[in-house]
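To: structure desk
From: M.T.
Subject: fold request, one chain
Message: Could you run this one when you get a chance? Sequence is below, nothing fancy, just the single chain.
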Amino acid sequence: MSANRNSRFGRMKVAVAAGLLLGLAACTNTFRADVSRFQSHLPAPSGQTFAVVADNPALAGGIEFSQYARLVEARMAQQGYVAVPNANEATLIVRFDYGVDNGRERVRSTGFARDPFWGPWYGFGHVGRFGHVGHFGRRGPWGYGWYDPFFDSGRIDSYTVYTSGIDMKIDRKADGARLFEGKAEAVSSSNRLPYLVPNLVDAMFTGFPGNSGETVRITVAPEKQASR
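Reply: Done. Structure tokens follow.
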């Protein structure tokens, strides 16, 4: 290989490195959720009433659950459905659940650095009860899968990442038929449910009810950092 060709290859690799690093910097500052939705004969909003209930009995009646349920109610109302205070009066029952796992320590090197949200070595290992420490233990679709030793130099940092998610189901009260199922899941550096759940609800209702059987990636605003 000629010296000129080596030089061109070196310049190209540096350019690619710079582009990837810029992409990673942008990505790690945003909240991305993967949303999967399924529906069967979900009725048009006109004339339909609904009530939001806890899919996990342990959450029923809780102040925290009520706060998140109001977010779901507001988004359902934006779709044209009418909220009622008593589930016995509703034509649709919206079952809602949420959770975040205990987190996993991840290591990355800085400089030309790998990022745990992108590397193929990233994996999920925790399995818990949804609504307690997390329902999202299975390996998820977040692996973008690039790795090159060229990027693997510099200082080593260790930090924790968390898998969070919400689960929403809509049943017809008259006969209990399941009309809609949806899951929104995300990996982030935060385990704060007051931050995570509203963002996941926003993701769930982006393009609601979506195409049945399709998983889409939704990007929402990052968590605001406390001023120093």
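Reply (cont.): The CA atoms of residues 119 and 146 lie 6 Å apart. Let me know if you need anything else for the meeting.
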